[in-house]
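tl;dr need the bound structure. longer version: we got a ligand (zinc ion) that a collaborator sent over and nobodys looked at where it sits. i said id run it. heres the input, straight from their email, havent touched it
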Amino acid sequence: MKPLLIRGGTVVNADREFRADVLCEGGRITAVGTDLATPAGCETLDAGGRYVIPGGIDPHTHMQLPFMGTVTRDDFYSGTAAAMAGGTTTIIDFVIPDPQEPLIDAYRKWRGWAEKSAGDYSFHVAVTWWSDSVHRDMGTLVTEEGVNSFKHFMAYKNAIMCDDETLVNSFRRALELGAMPTVHAENGELVYLLQAEMKAKGIFGPEGHPLSRPPAVEAEAAQRAIAIADVLNVPIYVVHVSCAESAAAIAAARARGQRVYGEVLAGHLVLDDSVYRNPSFEYAAGHVMSPPFRPKGHGDMLWRGLQAGSLHTTATDHCTFCAEQKAAGKADFSLIPNGCGGVEERMAVLWHEGVNGGKLTPSEFVAVTSANAARLFNVYPKKGCIAPGADADVVLWDPKATQTLSVKTQHSLGDFNIFEGRTVQGRATHTLSRGSLVWADGDLRAVRGAGQYIKRPPFAPQFAPLARKAELEQPVPVAR
Ligand code: URP
Ligand code: ZN
Ligand code: ZN
Ligand code: ZN
């Protein structure tokens, strides 16, 4: 791989922006500064007028996921390649063991599937059941495999849902290992009941999906998970926060001093639940994901959470099922495979609505599209930062370029685009993945298998104050 010098751009990191050249050698950034000398044999890229930003990190994707009786369209190759076309160079995907399946076995299976990745990848591992072997496997995953986050589905009853006993045991274990517990917050019992009620009322179409998962169902689970985390003195990360009530629960906990972190999906920021009342089954079902898109107004509260710093990361939950897969729920909305795409569109949607919309600075955009995820999941500044020593995951971002998002032009193998027809300004013109130019002016040069598995060390910075707090608040018996 030849060295590459990016000249004359404006580097944007989460803390500041400044004019600088960026030199990439051997997969790393080796120099950032003005008027850098061009080493022998070096290629150059003129960034004139463009921003030079860290490659995006999507901390929530599902490539090649077996789910609801089928498997997502995008595998680890097509999904990570599509990501690169949008400026995202790293994904954190999910290992989801079946109940009773050893965590390590599931992890090995997913590692095998992910070997075809074009871009870098890491894994959260879901805890879907509890036993001594799960306790042991969590330890092995953290100490030997570089997993530092565990996921808990509070929804999907009779499948991967975990009960409070599992949440409590797993959160405790995560704390002693220095791993971040994360939750999909929806009360699975309520969803199960409301799905049956909707069908009893004769509602079988996709409109039954949001009706069976109202905001209170999400808020209850978010509050419960936050309260459990508070009692156990463990940090917690709430994935795909979709409604004002959950965002408020996180903000309130943070205002009390609790270390709670929230993730927002690009789709939840810009879409609303009117999509489910569309007369076309394919269109409505194409939007079926959990939590569902919410009534108008909720998105504004999610933006405010990002602006206020009470929500931290943006993701997509990229999980593509095509029309014939969604058709499994033609006669019963509860059988529509849950999931939507977006890994390629996230950065452009965030820039357009966030920066152009007057809600985010370019540095705040970098914080919520890469740096914050890198910090929380402990790979900063290897990822999420333009600085010497960091991986050369670099994006040239043209704030003037426009594109109209469409299934016709997307690189994802899904056959639907939840952002269809949206014209956005600001896009990745060039993407470097560990120093290799993988996207250049519309030319996708993703290489199957070139992505690396990213190990993430335990005890991210948010753990130290919690340990100190526990020490200071150690209960003492009364001497009698
Ligand atoms: O609908 C969704 N989000 N599908 C993927 C699984 C999950 O809940 O994250
Ligand atoms: Zn233990
Ligand atoms: Zn989820
Ligand atoms: Zn998900």
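gonna send this back to them w/ a short note. The mean pLDDT is 98.
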